[in-house]
Write a structure and sequence with these properties.
Radius of gyration: 19 Å
Shape: globular
Largest sheet: 5 strands, mixed
Distance between the termini: 20 Å
CATH architecture of the largest domain: 3-Layer(aba) Sandwich
CATH topology of the largest domain: Peroxisomal Thiolase, Chain A, domain 1
Number of helices: 11
Bound molecules: acetyl coenzyme *A
CATH superfamily of the largest domain: Thiolase/Chalcone synthase
Helix content: 25-40%
Length: 337
């Protein structure tokens, strides 16, 4: 019989350093009103340069909490999946760093997922397949980002830099024999023709490193993320709705059946648009972008961990996760907690 994939533990970690909109206004031509009105963001966390917080270590900190809450020991984990667009190193990805930082006795597999804002839902889907087929019983799934070190904190980069924050979230996905619990479906999509609308192009293997060094051009913005904000926004609202409705239809569910929708935290206006279109009450949609900004692959597990800590999710509740981001990629997962 197929196993079901449940979430047995959740955890998150964010750096202590709170950066308010007014703090950013000291560094670039922006202001609190613009940021709150356009995005809903009031503050975000940035790691303190020189601290031990990196994408990998923040992921490990979140993972330790999730493992403990699952009632497991680190060595019970059989596989690691790590989603990020901001790895510590160009290669290897941070999954292997977690294998080391958890002090695992076993040389378990570690997979890195590069699907940006959709990365965590993609990772849940991968974990679900391994669990359903019986290959693994406990999989650690992490989303973690350190954006602040890679943003253009001048007025030139303000359209992007005010939005993103640092942090990590993690879950343990475990096998269950209970047919009434676990992931009901996942749906994954991509549309690569829009890859450049939200991308970070440098460094890359088309622009050869010796050529970059020879140019030594401080005006080269290819090392900073680029986002065609309006274009991304318009696609996001359409794709979010499509992939949520796809999940509901596949499971013969109505939006009213949902206890909680945890959307990727890209922009509060996007979440509010979805909520209104789906006619959901405020208590059916979890948002924390006000406090953390967009932490890309980490937004969904951080929000899930907070919602769980607040007692908003109980056994048997129907929970929907949905994300859209760079690629473009978009995805949903629906589960019975
Ligand atoms: N402070 C003040 N003014 C600013 C700032 C800022 N931080 N940033 C831009 N502006 C100015 C612009 O220069 C522009 O000025 P102009 O009219 O004189 O030219 C004006 O504000 C409007 O700029 P827009 O970019 O058109 O503003 P918009 O309302 O589209 O909001 C935003 C921008 C917040 C980025 C929005 O487009 C958005 O949220 N897009 C979607 C983001 C998203 O979903 N991303 C996907 C996930 S991220 C991932 O996958 C990595």
């Amino acid at each position: 019989m197929f196993k079901r994939s449940i979430i047995s533990g959740v955890g998150h970690y964010v750096p202590d350093n709170v950066v308010k909109n007014d703090d950013l206004a000291q560094r670039m031509d922006t202001n609190n009103e613009w940021i709150v009105e356009r995005t809903g963001i009031e503050e975000r966390r940035h790691v303190v340069p020189g601290s031990d917080d990196t994408t990998a270590t923040m992921g490990t900190k979140a993972a330790k909490i999730a493992i403990e809450r699952a009632g497991l020991q680190p060595d019970d984990i059989e596989f690691i999946i790590f989603a990020t667009l901001s790895p510590d190193y160009y290669f290897p990805g941070p999954g292997v760093q977690v294998q080391e930082q958890l002090g695992l006795a076993k040389e378990i597999g570690a997979l890195d997922v590069r699907n940006q804002c959709s990365g965590f839902v993609y990772s849940m889907s991968v974990a679900d397949q391994f669990i359903k087929t019986g290959m693994y019983k406990h999989i650690l799934v992490i989303g973690s980002e350190l954006h602040s070190g890679g943003l253009d904190m001048t007025t030139r980069g303000r359209g992007v830099s005010v939005i993103f924050g640092d942090g990590a979230g993690a879950v343990v996905m475990s096998a269950s024999d209970d047919p009434n619990r676990g992931i009901l479906s996942t749906h994954l999509h991509s549309e690569g023709r829009h890859a450049k609308e939200l991308a970070l192009e440098g460094p890359n293997t088309r622009d050869w490193v010796p050529a970059i060094i020879a140019r030594n051009d401080p005006e080269d913005t290819s090392f900073y993320p680029y986002m065609n904000g309006n274009f991304v926004f318009k696609h996001a609202v359409v794709r979010f709705m499509e992939v949520i409705n796809e999940a509901l239809a596949a499971n013969q569910l109505q939006s009213t059946d949902l206890k909680l929708l945890i959307p990727h935290q890209a922009n509060l206006r996007i979440s509010q648009y979805i909520q209104q279109k789906m006619q959901l009450r405020d208590d059916q949609v979890y948002n924390n972008i006000m406090r953390y900004g967009n932490t890309t692959a980490a937004t969904i597990p951080i929000a899930l961990s907070e919602a769980w800590e607040a007692g908003l999710i109980q056994k048997g509740d129907l929970v929907m996760f949905a994300a859209f981001g760079s690629g473009f990629t978009w995805a949903s997962a629906v589960m019975r907690w």
